[in-house]
Design goal:
By secondary structure, the protein is an alpha/beta fold. It has 14 helices and 17 strands.
Amino acid sequence: MTGDELVRIHVRDDQDVFAMRKLGREVAESVGLEAQDQIRVATALSEIGREFVEAGIDVSVSFRLERDALLVAVDFSAKTDFRPSDGVTLAGRLVDRIEFDPVEGRISMVKRLPQGRKPRLSAEEIRARIADSAPTTALDELRRQNRELAETLEEVLQLNTELQETNQGVLALYNQLSEELEETNRGVVALYAELDEKSAQLRAASDAKNRFWATVSHELRTPLNSIIGLVRLLVGPGGDPLAAEQLHQVNLIGSSAETLLSLVSELLDMAKAEAGRLDPQPSMVDLVALAERLRMTLRPTTGNDGVTLTVEVSQAPPEMLVDEVMLTRILRNLLSNGLKFTEHGEVKLEVSLEAATHDLVFTVTDTGIGVPEEHLERVFEEFFQVPGPIQVRSKGTGLGLPYARRLAEALGGALHLASVAGSGTTATLRLPYRHDGAPVVGRVLIVDDDEEFRATVRRMLTGFAAYIDEASDGLRALEMMEENPPDIALVDLLMPRLDGTALMLRMSDERLRDVPVIVVTVATSRQVPERAHMMISKQTLRRDILLEAIGSALGTADE
């Protein structure tokens, strides 16, 4: 042991144990230990001393002072074959560290001073103070221990009173928080009810708007067709000849009527698209013939010899299963836009098969004026047109691109634009490639409480899955699985009644335990459930990502 020795005492009997206890208390007080720590040191010495006295072994106890600790050494003869028992064990609980060395014949104890506190007295002052202290008897020491016990009991009673007061305060706070939480819950329930009501109103307004457009568009078509028919009778063969000015005016009427009819048709189609009533009718389509027809049809309408229109289908399959009318309308719209806003250069349609996603990619590029980056998504809003001099000169309604994107989604694909202002535009249409109508997967179950999202995923899976089932919560999903087990399930985590995590835990019987699960959710910050194959964010979900994930889950990604 290191440090200056303060005092040493020999212990042979019970009287020495009392003296050692008193001495240990005084030394602990002198070096700066708190009252409770003084009692702990004294008690530890008393327990060890009694154990040696009962064993009939004489010991020498020395006290030393280090910079931040009191060191106590209990030395005995190694030949006594002393084995520590309960007294040493109890002492070890009262000090910071205790070590028993039977070879050296020593028990070492350490009691650290409070952090940052230095000894009150020097080693010489402590020795002098201990030397001046009066000797004590067993009765005196017993009285002192009783006083310490009474003081400790008083402190315990006081702590118990404080604890009861704290418990009362905690209980009152708990009751207050419970009341506030209940009030908040009532507010949340009321807010949800209000949101449901507003959602119903918005859906009703949207339905009313769609019915209005459909009705107005339909009612306008009849008189417009009549006007166009009468104009053709007037200017066609068999009618009375018209003067040059009359012929010009009648042709203007016919042209305006045809423009208005085109606008009305687009409005009607947009209403159908928003109402989800665009039902594709797939058939085998000759892509080469389709591209050539578009080239021949649109080339005479350019009115500009400085622009060439080319098509290239050499890298694509010759046929695919798709709704020909919808595909033609999308491509005609993209090519018309390219020709309209390109004054010099080329507009080109390329068709190719992307092996990684098994998508047929239609790319329309032009060398026109381009679209500023801040307007790349706004051009897909109804009636929006990019401001500029060419747009002012060109006739347009701002419905073509929104309609084209809705058609692409109805076909299970996606339409995107990439452009730099002044450097042309690239429009990319991705569609699932099917050449024989055979789906890749048999049955897919979509489990999500969002009806619109389920409709979006259903469109993405069109032609890819033979059967597509939908469930609005986990309980309904379990019922459907029992009737027709799916080949794969797309599951949201946040749902009423039974959420996605609970649903996966209940998919444990023989028929469902091997069904792959892909989690599609907004709660991507959560850990991927162990039962799930992978997790996909709703915000970034695209058809190619979804199909690749399904292929990976089914083990067909590389097929």
